[in-house]
Amino acid sequence: MSKLFFSILLLTIPFTLFSNDPIKLDSVDQPLFKPLIERYILDEIKSLRQENQSLKAEVTKQVAEAKVESSDRAINYTTSTINNIFYIITAAASLLVLLGWRSLNDIKKSLKIDMAKKIQTLTSDYESRLQQVEVKMTERSKVIIETQKNITDTNSIHSLWMRAGLEKSDEEKISVYDEILNIKPDDIEAMTYKADALLEIGEVRWALDLANHAIDHDNEYALAYWQRACAYSKMDKQAEALKDIKKALELSDALEEELLKEKHFENLHTNRSFKLLVPKT
Questions:
Q1: Residue 6 pLDDT
Q2: Distance (Å, rounded) from C-alpha 155 to C-alpha 148?
Q3: Residue 153 CB neighbours (<10 A)
Q4: Which of 2, 75, 144, 220 has its CA 20 to 30 A from that of 23?
Q5: Rounded to a whole number, what is the distance in angstroms from the first to the last CA of the chain?
Q6: Cα–Cα dist 149/64, whole Å
Q7: Rounded to whole angstroms, how far apart are CA atoms 153 and 148?
Q8: Which pLDDT belongs to residue 1?
Q9: Residue span of the signal peptide, if any (predicted)?
């Protein structure tokens, strides 16, 4: 941030320090530090993407190490258990032979059965534990992948919004809004701005359908009602237009200042109800 501030400070130094023919600052139409701000934002996005990739690699490494460690523990525990069982078998067999309980064959069969059951129980227990660990790691991996996808989509949408701000023709803006909606179909802001661009090229009914779609997704979004009111006004449906204007003003008081500036409301200027909505200066 300090580098960005220093760059902006340099841009604000009068050009008379570097030239015999001074350039009037009043002739500059746009802020000179805007490219630097955009560059800073892009660098921050790039850094965020790199950190996310590093996190994914670290999690994958930890998952692999956890699986290997769990397998080693299971094998060591099973080996130790089998050795202990054989020691017990040997001691029990010797004792039973001496006491004359059973024949050696009966003892061997009985011990084999018990040993098989014990090993099967231990194996099933560790398999169950390993499956639980694997399920948890899989869920975490899905969360990480989903988070990475959301970050990528957010970066793409941000870039498209910046591109839309640079486009001059309404047709090109509509194309950019379509790309945003392909990434995020429920982006009501993109729907609303697309409806505004459609009104500019005369596609009133298309704009009306898009505004209705935006309201269906979020009935508390003021600009969606505003754009639908513009479409109704262009269709000379003044009652519907005034109803949506009132709703938009209820949701956002800041829109009152735009009532007389909105060119799509020009045919409403003579309407008495419309005049009552216009704030008095």
A1: 45
A2: 11
A3: 13
A4: 2
A5: 42
A6: 23
A7: 9
A8: 47
A9: 1-19
Question: Quick one: pLDDT at residue 31?
Answer: 58
How does pLDDT run across 40-78, given as a tens digit for each residue? 788 888 888 888 888 888 888 888 787 777 777 778 778
Instruction: Give the whole-angstrom CA distance, residue 192 versus residue 230.
Output: 11
Nearest to 112 by CA among 136, 86, 138: 86
pLDDT at 30: 55
Contacts of 223 (CB under 8 A, 6+ apart): 189, 192, 248, 252
Quick: pLDDT tens for 106-140: 767 777 888 888 888 888 888 888 888 888 888 88
Q: What is the average pLDDT across 242-254?
A: 87
Cβ count near 232 (within 10 Å)? 23
In terms of Cα–Cα distance, which of 229, 231, 225, 235 is closest to 274?
A: 229
Structure tokens at 34: 């805007």
Q: What does the alpha-carbon distance between residue 276 and residue 281 come to, in Å, rounded to a whole number?
A: 13
- Short-list 230, 257, 255, 252, CA closest to 241: 230
C-alpha closest to that of 259 among 222, 217, 214:
222
Range list of β-strands (E), 5-142: none
DSSP label of 266: G
- Each residue of 183-196: b (16+ CB within 10 Å) or e? eeeebbbbbbbbbb
User: How many residues does this entry show for the chain?
Assistant: 281
What phi and psi, each to the nearest 5 degrees, are found at residue 18? -115, 0
- pLDDT, tens digit, for every residue of 134-158? 888 888 888 888 888 888 878 888 8
Q: With H, G, I as helix, E, B as strand and everything else as coil, classify residue 275.
A: helix
Q: Which residues contact 255 (CB under 8 A, 6 or more apart)?
A: 222, 226, 248, 249
Token pair for 166: 């640079």
Q: Would you say residue 7 has pLDDT above 80?
A: no
